[in-house]
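Below is our example:

___
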Amino acid sequence: MIAFVSGRVAAAGPDGAVIDVHGVGLSVQCTPATLAGLRVGDPAHVPTSLVVREDSLTLFGFADDDERAVFELLQTASGIGPRLALAMLAVHTPDALRRAVAAEDVAALTKVPGIGKKGAQRIVLELKDRLGGPVGGGDDVRAPARGEAWRDQVQMGLVNLGWSAKDADAAVDAVAADLDGGETPPVAALLKAALKKLSK
C-alpha cells in the first residue's frame, strides 16, 4: 500500500490534486477540506490510501493519518465504497463521524448525499464498536479558507457530491449572504452550511 506521497503540488482541481514525486505526477482524490490545505507549487505531505479495482488504481489523499484511518474503517461497512466514504469525510470531520455513530445520530449521517435512513442505521450498527470515540478537542480542525477562494472549493465540493452546478451556486450564494464579514470559517464548516441550505 502507498501510505503517503510527499512532493510539490503540481496541480489542484475540483476533486483532487497532482503531487510531483521526483518527476512522477501522482493523481490523488481528496475532500474539499483536504484540498484547501494544498497550494500549487508548495511542498505537501499527504497520507494516502490506495484502492485497487479490476480496471483502476485510485489514490485517495487525506489531511492527516486519522482521516485516512476513518476512511478505511468506513469501507468495512456494507454498502460503503471509497466514493461514499470520501463524501462522508467531505461533510463530517473524523471526530464528528465518531460522535454521530457513537450517539446513533442517524440525522447527522443522512446529511451525506447517498446515505438514507436505512443506510445510516446500518452504518451505526456495523461501525459502533470499531470507530471508537472522538480523539480531538473540537468539532473542526480543518485549515481555514483564504479570502474568497472558499466559494470555488465549496461549489466544486457540492458538484462532486452530486448536486447540480446551479443548485451549488445558489447554496454558495446563500452561505456567503450569511457571513457577517468577520473571519471566514473553515471550508469544511462552509460546506456543511451549504449542504444544510440544500437539504431544506
About this structure: The longest helix spans residues 117-131. Residues 65-128 form a domain with the DNA polymerase; domain 1 fold (CATH 1.10.150.20). DSSP finds nine helices and five strands in the chain.
